[in-house]
Amino acid sequence: MPLLLSIESSCDDTSAAVLHNDNLLSNVTASQKVHEQYGGVVPELASRAHQQNIVPVVDAALKNANITARDIDAVAFTRGPGLLGSLMVGVSFAKGFSQALNIPLVEVNHLEAHVLAHFIRENMEGNAPSFPFVCLLVSGGHTKIILLHSHFDMEVLGQTIDDAAGEAIDKAAKIMDLGYPGGPVIDRLARDGNPNAYKFATPHIEGFDYSFSGIKTSFLYFLRDQLVGDPLFIEHHKADLCASIQHCIVGFLLQKLERAVKSCGAKHVAIAGGVSANSALREGVTAMAKRQGWHAYLPPMRFCTDNAAMVGIAGYYKYLRGEFADIALPPYARG
Ligand code: KG4
Ligand code: ZN
């Protein structure tokens, strides 16, 4: 059974992992610091950093797994969605690697990879959800409620009609000048704040869809009004502001998720993607599952934000199905 090398380069993390079947042997990620000073990912700088990082990252992944390139049976890569220039680096590397070693290529969709991260095993142990289960996928670029009938039979029950949840959190952080990415900073500062200090309304959207652009705008206007009377308002109320905006966004996410799980009668609920690292969301999903008698699945923190281990597990299941990719496949930006 296969030893698989996987590559992730869709945004600003260069990552490589080695899996033996569904068991993770190594996972190495180089995060790019260069974007911090710009308050967001600069695509051109991201591609350049990927080019610098990819060879040492793959090298380290092979070393940590105690194997050499010749031992690898297949190479999986993120084909999209993501930044084209960033994807191109991982895609080209994977193709070169497969050509050089004469091994098959497996293309992976980044969103499917986030969701399938729940199936990664380490030291032969894991906590995989049973089918069917509902997964809230929340990242910097995507917000979707997905019903999984099987590994690749994913039915989208609802999704954002504008901004992603992570994007809204990052923008709120940017308005408060907290740095990029803002999610982890807001999470940390919110711990010392009162989540009910300020109320921000959530929009009424049909069904299981979301919208986050209005929340972001009302946060911006609220701050603008406060700053007129007190230029140090943000400085003085940072913790309460973080706790309140996080409470609003997480509450909205949970409210729709709960309705969606109920509507399809599933008993298993999961979260995935960068925002699933958020402590309020993790606590909220755990409490919801307890109240409803469901099982909750929270990915280990290291598999929430972008990583190649999740690309590897998705690649493994595709490998089992004999789904190999043609060398000519281009990356795609939108999925
Ligand atoms: O999945 P991911 O690494 O990249 C995309 O595929 O987009 O997600 C990145 C997002 C960013 O918006 C980041 O602020 C958010 O995940 N994030 C968090 C936390 N950690 C990362 N948001 C809230 N709380 C966190 N602890
Ligand atoms: Zn991602």
What brief labels describe this structure?
single chain; alpha/beta; Nucleotidyltransferase, domain 5; 2 domains; five-stranded mixed sheet; 9 helices; globular; binds 5'-O-[(R)-(carboxyoxy)(hydroxy)phosphoryl]adenosine; binds zinc ion
What does this 3D model show about the protein?
- There is one protein chain.
- With 335 residues, the protein is of the alpha/beta class.
- It has 2 domains: 3-125 and 304-320, Nucleotidyltransferase, domain 5 (2-Layer Sandwich), CATH 3.30.420.40; 133-301, Nucleotidyltransferase, domain 5 (2-Layer Sandwich).
- It has 9 helices and 11 strands.
- The strands form 2 sheets. It has a 6-stranded mixed sheet with strand order 5-4-1-2-3-6, with helices on both faces. The chain has a 5-stranded mixed sheet with strand order 9-8-7-10-11, sandwiched between helices.
- A hairpin with a 2-residue loop joins strand 2 and strand 3 (23-31).
- Helix 1 (43-64) runs parallel beside helix 2 (84-101).
- The longest helix is centred in the C-terminal third of the chain and has 32 residues, at 233-264.
What spatial order of strands do you see in the largest sheet? 5-4-1-2-3-6
Distance between the termini: 30 Å
- Roughly what fraction of the amino acids lie in strands? 15-25%
Helical run tally: 9
Averaging pLDDT over every residue, what do you get? 97
The topology string of helices and strands comes to: EEEHEHEHEEEEHHHHEHEH
The CATH class of the largest domain turns out to be Alpha Beta
CATH superfamily of the largest domain: ATPase, nucleotide binding domain
Number of domains: 2
Oligomeric nature of the chains: single chain
- Biggest sheet architecture: 6 strands, mixed
What coarse outline follows from CA principal-axis ratios? globular
Proportion in helices = 40-55%
Number of strands: 11
> What structural class is derived from the secondary structure elements?
alpha/beta
CATH architecture of the largest domain: 2-Layer Sandwich
**Associated small molecules:** 5'-O-[(R)-(carboxyoxy)(hydroxy)phosphoryl]adenosine, zinc ion
